[in-house]
Amino acid sequence: MPMDRSPYYSSSSDSSPFSSSGSSPAKASTVVLSIECLKGSSKADEWTGDMLQTGDIVEELKIGNLTVKSPFKNGKTGVQRILHNSFKQKQTSIRVRVRRGSDDLAELQACIVPGDQLVGKKQYVLRAIDDPNYAVGFFDRTESECLNLQASRTSRMVSALERTPLQDGYVSYPWERRMGEMLSIPNSSSFYSILFLPKASDKAGTRYNDLEDTLARAHAWINASQASGAPIVFMNIQTESLLTKISGDTASSTVSAGSLSDLSNLANTSIYGFEDYHGIDIGVVRAVRLWFSPLAGEIPIEIKIKETDTKLGFAISRTEEGFIHISSVIETDNDAPSARSGLSNLYKQASETSRLLVVSRISNQKVLPWMVSPTGAIRCFDTVSLSQKLSLHRHARVPILLHVFLWDRSANYANVGSIRARAMSVCPPSLPTEVHLARRDNENQALPTEEEEEEEEETDDQYESREGDGAAAIMLDRDTAGEFSFRLHDFGLTNNWV
Question: Which of 159, 233, 339, 360 is 20–30 Å from 97 (CA)?
Fold first, then answer.
């Protein structure tokens, strides 16, 4: 606690009360009890006039009903004996009054504690009542030394600034509660990424394109996704190192453990290798991870099922970039599950703004593309299996929870080219008619309308004119890990109605 005191005089002034030039040699050499600051304040105010500092001259100690004034018998040793007796008697509250210069006074209300960690055993220190982190002790000095320390206060502050380190620590955090309250989808983020592996430049997979080619393919994918109407926004792109075991001929470059000059050859390589201590060739694959996020967040849609429902009332398709989206909705049935849940209205609004109604999650499972293989195939979800799962929801009368990407009507996509005028009109080609008839034998499958049959015939004509003689070969290719990446499954159901 501060007391009334005269203004603090500068040490550079000739009339400074801190100057010992006017003191007699006998007085200047007098030993006094002074303060020694042992631990700084956590409030960063130990350099204010209210706090005691190294070099302050102790004038009075008050412990309970005991008052001891300067001069103190036996100096520091005598005071330590007083502190020891008081601590044993459980009288730990102490008030210290100090002097700076001739008449500048300050006080500290503290408690007596053992100084094991600060000054050693059998020694006592004082901790401030309002800041237990701040601790001071006592030291025997001459009065001239104390005055010099008081006069060097500015230089000591600068020295303390240079010597004071920043301390780190840990703080507990309620992760479960925060992840449940602060996320739009509890316990799940809205950050999405897709990993691009370097493309193989030969069929044997022994040579791969450089890093620039991988970056260009990632850039083309995000631009094409936005141009197709997927309401996503680019967030970040990074290289990601993956370890693998390769032969020495596969690596584009080889790093020698004894030479740093080889590092300059790795600037644009996608695969490089080095030999470990056991002589095994280790390869490092430099993949590219592209981060994206929904343009305006995600919205959950719960589709409840009635016993009278024979269809869900919507169809799903997939874009070339691997996004699952709602491709069609039934407009004539206002009691269809898609209409009751509001999915039909969202689809119409998305169509008006040339946006795809992208499905991001089904029953909280993410259904977005997540990897591009060295063959160039996009690893994504199969529309047929998704349709089957949605149909099982309808048969079991279990509600369906979909999450779809929202879109921002004011968003500008000028940087990625023009948006398709009718993003929703593109439907996947269908299989020949006999395949559809075989699927319609299911008693739970509703018969198509005349309009649907006309759409099927028109789609088949488009498919035959586009694919030509190679259509049969593509339909027979069921290698979903190859170049076509589940493309066969898109042909199974017209518009993938569920």
Answer: 159
Q: What whole-number distance in Å separates Cα of residue 355 and Cα of residue 409? A: 9
Residue 286 token pair: 């430099």
Listed residues 269, 293, 317: the one ending a domain? 293
Provide the pLDDT confidence category of residue 445 given band limits of 50, 70 and 90. very low
Are residues 262 and 306 both part of a single domain? no
* Predicted confidence band of residue 423 (pLDDT cuts 50, 70, 90): very low
What is the pTM assigned to this prediction? Answer: 0.58
* Residues 257 and 317 reside in one and the same domain: no
pLDDT digits (tens, 9 = 90+) for 302-317: 999 999 988 999 999 9
Q: Which of 170, 166, 222, 175 is nearest to 196 (CA)?
A: 222
Are 477 and 369 members of one domain?
yes
**Is 86 in contact with 80 (CB distance < 8 Å)?**
no
Q: Which amino acid would we find at residue 48?
A: T
Burial grade of 34 (CB within 10 A; 0-12, 13-18, 19 or more):
buried
Closest alpha carbon to 390 in 314, 308, 492, 298: 314
Long-range Cβ contact pairs of 439-448 (< 8 A, separation 24 or more): 439/492, 439/493, 444/310, 444/391, 444/395, 446/310, 446/311, 448/494
The dihedral region occupied by 330, where left means phi > 0, alpha psi between -120 and 50, and beta the remainder, is beta
Q: Domain check: are 343 and 457 in the same one?
A: yes
If one counts the domains in the chain, the total is: 3
Residues 282 and 305 grouped into a single domain = no
* Residue-number span of the structural domain to which 414 is assigned: 295-496
Average pLDDT (413-435) is: 34
Report the run of H or E that residue 126 belongs to, with start and end.
Answer: strand 124-128
